[in-house]
Amino acid sequence: MERFGHLQAITVTPEDTATVVTVARQKFLNALNRMVLAELDFVLDVLLEDVPNKPLIITGEGSRAFVAGADIGEMVNMTPDEALAFSRFGQGVFSKLETFPSVTIAAVNGYALGGGNELAMACDIRIAAKNARFGQPEAGLGIIPGFGGTQRLARIAGKPNALDLILTGRVINADDALRIGLVHKVVDEGKALEESLSYSRAVLKNSPFALSQAKKAVSGAEPSGPGNGMSAEADLFSRCFAHHDQKEGMKAFLEKRRAKFQEEP
After folding, report:
1. pLDDT for residue 77
2. Treating both helix axes as pointing N-terminal to C-terminal, what angle do 230-240 and 80-98 enclose, rounded to 10 degrees?
3. pTM, whole model, 2 decimals?
4. 231 partner at 20 to 30 Å CA-CA among 3, 45, 96, 187?
5. Distances (CA, A) of 18 to 34, 54, 57, 98, 186
6. CA 262-264-265 angle, 5° bins
7. What per-residue confidence (pLDDT) applies to 1?
8. How far apart are CA 260 and CA 262, in angstroms?
């Protein structure tokens, strides 16, 4: 579509019932980097100018991953100040998605880890294929979630489940994600986008204005309110980049070996 210019990592496909935005870095399991975030930010701005009525579906290219996480190769040598800016930028993009006027749906296929899970959680509805896998494994890299994960996961799945996933770094399957409320529906492999389009068809029967107001009302009903805690998360995320464990954790990941973290916190 001409109005989106030349995008390198994002594709935008208008469907009858929704606009489908796809993270298209299949070779890299659709990992998030500055370019992906910037292009997603741009696409959301363009769609906002259209006064959107149709639902927005976010998905990942291919069957292996929705978004497998942030690009570790880009993050490994970040300074704390660079990490703070990266966190705040990602938080801003995901908050823009969270407050998008029309209904947003994450069609999750394969891995939704770290930033990928955070991206899915920024959507109103999450529909997962049976092969979907969810997790926040950042602690194994010597950092914490930095794109709103510490806040949204606690709100969506409850504090005990959020702490469990963040502190252990374990990855859960689609059925377990459904059990803790992280996803709304599980469908057969390869059917997440199809089901998301069907869901958007049901949404279109309702008033776009009423839907936008309902989203605001539900967000306002949350005890912490959207945005609270984000600044603290970004600060703590950036502090990790001044510590030995971030350097060791990310280098170990890139070198495909087990990390040797410091014994003392």
Report:
1. 95
2. 150
3. 0.90
4. 45
5. 26, 5, 7, 17, 20
6. 95
7. 55
8. 7
Residues of the chain with pLDDT under 70: 1-2, 51-52, 221-228, 264-265
Concerning whether 194 is annotated as a catalytic residue, the answer is no
The per-residue b/e assignment along 5-33, b for 16 or more CB within 10 angstroms, e otherwise, is eebebbbbeeeebbbbbbbbbeebbbbbb
Contact 130, 189 (CB under 8 A): yes
**Is 138 designated active site?**
yes
Catalytic residue selected from 39, 61, 98, 118: 118
Superfamily of domain 2-190: 2-enoyl-CoA Hydratase; Chain A, domain 1 (3.90.226.10)
Residue 252: how many other CB atoms lie within 10 Å: 17
- What is residue 30's predicted lDDT score, i.e. its pLDDT? 96
Q: Among residues 61, 138, 195, 233, which one is catalytic?
A: 138
pLDDT the model gives residue 226: 52
Given this model, what pLDDT does residue 155 score? 94
Q: Amino acid identity, residue 127?
A: I
